[in-house]
């Protein structure tokens, strides 16, 4: 399933900057960055549950925001992209 993860982490202090790096690194390990604080992640149900749990533990709910949109398996008709930085299909074979 495709999951869209967005976050806004307060960086007013060193702890906030550390949380931001941790949230970003966790998301990078599970999907592709499509904007600064927006990630598209292709996950199965268990991967999704684990990622969601990790992210909720990382943020400070008093000053940070985490939004998760589950687009499911039929996401291709729900996602439109215009402009720079086109994404690649992570479900396809990647040749490096």
Description:
By secondary structure, the protein is of the alpha+beta class. The chain is 30% helix and 25% strand. It contains two helices and four strands, in the order βαββαβ. The protein has a four-stranded antiparallel beta sheet, with helices on one face. Helix 1 packs antiparallel against helix 2 (45-58). The model has no long low-confidence stretch (mean pLDDT 88).
Describe the structure using short key phrases.
96 residues; alpha+beta; four-stranded antiparallel sheet; 2 helices; 4 strands; 30% helix
SSE layout:
Blueprint: E1 2-8, H1 14-28, E2 32-35, E3 38-42, H2 45-58, E4 65-72
Antiparallel strand pairs: 1-3, 1-4, 2-3
Q: Please report the distance between the alpha carbons of the first and last residues.
A: 25 Å
Largest sheet: 4 strands, antiparallel
| Overall geometric form | globular
Measured on Cα atoms, how large is the radius of gyration?
14 Å
Using DSSP, what is the number of strands?
A: 4
Element order: H for helix, E for strand? EHEEHE
Which residues form runs of ≥5 with pLDDT under 50?
A: none
Give the strand line-up of the largest sheet: 2-3-1-4
Query: Could you tell me the strand content as a percent range?
Result: 25-35%
Mean pLDDT: 88
